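Table S5 (text form). Sequence records supplied for joint modeling of the two-component complex.
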Amino acid sequence: MTLPRSRTTHSIRRSPVHLTSAGLLLIAVAIALPFAFPYYSMLVLSFMPRSAIMQPVLHLWPAPWIWENYRRIFFGEWVLSVSIFRAVFNSFVLATGQTIPMLLLCSLLAFLFAKWDFPGRSILFGLSLATMFIPYQATLVAFYLLVSRLGWLDTFLPLWIPWWVPGFAIFFLRQYIRAAIPDDLIDSGLIDGAGLLRQYWSVVLPLIVPGLVVVGVLNFVNAWNDYIYSNLVFSNVRLYPSTLYLYSFQGSRIAVPEYGMMTAASILASLPIITIFLVFQRQIISGLTRGAIR
Amino acid sequence: MTARSALRLRRITAREPARSSRLAVQRGALLAVLLPFVAIVTLFQLVPFLWSLYLSVHRWAGVGTPRWVGLGNFTRIVQDATIQAAFANTVLFILIMVPTLTALSLALALLLNHALLPLRGILRVLVFLPYITPAIVAAIIFSIVFNERFGHMNAMLQLVGLSPVAWLKTQTGARIVVALTGIWQVLGYTTLITLGGLQTLPHELYEAATIDGADAWQRFWAITLPLLSPTLAVVSVIALLFVLNLFLPYFLFPATNGYGPERGTVTVSVVQYVYAFTNRRYGEAAAVGCLVGIVGFLIALLQIRVWRLSRGWSI
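The corresponding C-alpha cell record, covering 609 residues in total, follows.
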C-alpha cells in the first residue's frame, strides 16, 4: 500500500491509513477463520453430549457443557477399553524411536558424505538419493510381507528401523554441514589427532543443531501422524498409536458415532504434536520460507 | 573440496605411518556407520521394491505358491471398474486441486507478505497448523462440519436461507469435501514455500517500477508473477505429489473403505491399500503400486528439474 504523499494535512493523511489498517485487519480475520474454525469447533463439540451435537443448529459454544467425553476416553470406556493416554504414549514411543536414531545416523552419514572421502562414497550417496525416488506405493505390499516374515508384527521395530536413513534427511544435513562447517575446522581437528567419531561428536554435532531441529521435528510429525504403516503392523490395541485409536472411532460401524468422544480424542491426540511444533515454530517456518527444506 | 580432503587423508597415511593405526580405527568407524545404512536401504527399500515387482507378475492371495501370470495382473487392473475409478478420480483431484492450491498459495503468500498485515507471525503459524495435524483428525472434524443433518456447513447455509446439501452422500458433494479437506491440510505448507520465494524477489525492481508509475496490479503482472514462476512450479509439483498420495478418502468415508458414494472418491493410494490389505489381492495391489510408482518416479524427476530451475541446485 502506498501512502498518498502529496497530501500534507495531518488529519487527511491519516484517514486513509486508518481505513487500510481496518481493511487489513478484516483480511487477517478472513484468512484466520477457515484455518482456525475447525479447531475451535472440535474444542466446542468435545464438551458436548452426543444428543446436543446432533441438534441441527450452529454450535458456537458448548451447551450443555459436560466433561463426560474426556472422562470416558481417559478411562478407556469405549470399545477398545484403552485409555487415550496409552495411545498418545505409544505415539511418543513410535515417533521418538524413529526420530532420535535417525538424527544421529543421518547426521553422521551426512558428515561422511560432506567432508570425507572413502571408496564407494559417490555410489553410496547416490543410493541414498535414489531411495527418495521410490514412491511408497511401489514397496508397500512387499514391505508388509517382509515385516511379517521377520516376525516384527505388533512390535515397534518396523516403524523405527526402516525409517532411520531417509534420503531427504541425509541430503539436507549434508548441504547443511557443507555450509555450516569450514574444512579448516575439520583439518585442525585431524592434526590434533581427533578421529572421525570424535570430530563428529565434539565439532559437527554442536554446530548443526538448528538443522537437526528442523529435520527432527518434521520427521517426528510424520511419524506421529502415520496411519498407513502403523495399521499394517499393529493388531494389539494396547500398542495402537493415536492415529489408529482415532480411526477406531471414525471407522466403527456404529450407526451413530460418538462425536463428542471423537473430538475429545482428536484434541488430545493432536495437542502434543501441535505443542512440539509451536515450541520450534520459529525454526521450522524460517527453514521453510528460506527454502532450506522442500 | 572432496578431492582436497581425500588428498589430505591420503597424505596423513602416506607420510606418517605412525598414524596408520588411527586410520584403521577410522576404517572401523566408517564401517560402523556405513553398514547399517547399506543394510537398512537394501532390506527395506531395495528388497521390497524387487519383491513388489515380482508380486506384480504373479497371482497370490497370501498362501501357497505365487503363480506366474505375466502381465495378467496389469490387464486385469485396467479392466477393474474400481481401479479405473481410482485412476479417473486421482486425475480429477489433480486437475481440481493442483491449480487451486497453486493459486491460493500465491494469494495467501502475497497477503502474508504484506508489511502492514496485523498478526502476520501468528497467521503464518496458524495456516501451517493443519499440515502437522494428523489426517485422521482433519477427516473427523470435516466429516462433522459437512454432516448433512447437523453439520456447521448446512447450518450456515440455512442461516442465509439456502437449503441443506447432502455433502457426504452424493458423488459431487463427497468429492468437494475431499478436495476442501486436502486443500485445508496442505495449503499452509505450499503457502510458506511461496512466501519464501516472494521474499527473495529484489526490492529495487519494485522501487524502480513504482517510480516509473506502475500501480500494484501492473507490478504484480510484470515483476512478481514472472520472477516467482519457478517457485510456483515447485509448489505445483509438491501439490501434485500430495494429490497422488491422497489417502484422505479412507478416513472420510470409512464405511466404504474410502470408496465414497458411487466410488466417487476412491484414489489410487486408497485402492491399492484396500486391495492388498483388506482383499488380500497382493498381485493386483503390487501392479497398481508399480503403475503409481512409475508416475511418482516421473514426478520426482520433474521435481528435481524444477528445484534446479528455482534455485540452481546441483546434486
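Note: The radius of gyration of chain A is 25 Å.
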